Amino acid sequence: MHHASARQQPSERTGIWFVGARGSVASTATLGLAAIVEGQSPPTGCVTAREPFASAGLPAFADLVVGGHDISAVTMTKRAECLVETGMIGPRLLAATHDALERADAEVRPGYDPRTAHLQDGQEPESQQAVAERLAADITSFQERHELARVVVVDLSSTEPPVDPVPEHDDVDALLAALADPARAVLPASSVSAYAAILAGAAYAAFTPSAGMNLPALTRLARDRGIPVAGQDGKTGQTWLRTVLAPAFAARGLKVLSWAGTNLLGGGDGATLADPDAVRSKLASKNRGLTALTGSDTTPLHIDNVPDLGDTKVAWDHVHVEGFLGSRLTLQTTWSAHDSMLAAPLVLDLARLLALAHAAGISGPVPELGFFFKDPWGSDVHDAAEQARAVEEWVLGASAQVGR
User: What distance in Å separates the CA atoms of residue 354 and residue 176, rounded to the nearest whole number?
Assistant: First the structure.
């Protein structure tokens, strides 16, 4: 058992601050956390529930406290009720975790909606600096109210279109000047939330393909202020399976000629990704690792909105491979799962691991957390097995760092 100062010990109470707190993934993660803590369900699917993570000095599930931002008025409890109706969550679990959902939802504060930011009662427009300071104050107040050692912000908000780069994204001083100008909106909403995390001194994970912290000036600020960050776009289902299978073909000396995929999904994600601008972010992050692993530039991918599927996601893949003496073989896979059930345990893992990173004094992108992401920051490794080894080694090193 490592002994550390009270300030450093990561098993102290830790806040998870969800951006998009009333969405399906955050509501599922909150309900699941309560079910684990109350002994209603084992932590199946949580990477950090197994060794070497289980004894690595991560915050206990019981020490995690949930809050967040959202622009929706639909409460976590109502969202969970909808997920029960779709058959994703059992009614018994909802009944057992109802109070915990209510407590978490009471910690949700209004988020930043750039569409309505300038429409409030004819007031003067608010600068993005002022917005970020307001969001940061919500996080700081949450931390103080619950006497938390630290907070981890996890972005689970709806996918944004790719951001158009401007010079301010590369230059900290220019960015800060632009943020102070009420006439300018130089950051997308996800990056305003990321900047708020920096102002609040909170660790940060980007579980979506939106820009978030992934602008050079914001990454630099996070590193300068001692804040660990990880991203980008959670690797939960189809892409995870691809990054398991693709290295296997390479290890056998087989050449992937093409890897075609289709996603069918409904729910909020399906509706968001029906927007041709928003879907470009998702398609880019889903394909990047596959292209790197196979060397094939023929990796067409389609995402179709099928509303009646709700949170159930169906993914088809057709892999065409060249073998010995020019022979051909094909592999077809069908993956079907509740998307939020895949994402929620990984979100809890990331909160625990980033809390450890924060306690260990790690700052900037943490490449060893690439296991959790389609488009990992600070790493070109996409092979799932290699990523799994890297995060296991990392957690032991970071834990030893805290224990000094």
Answer: 26
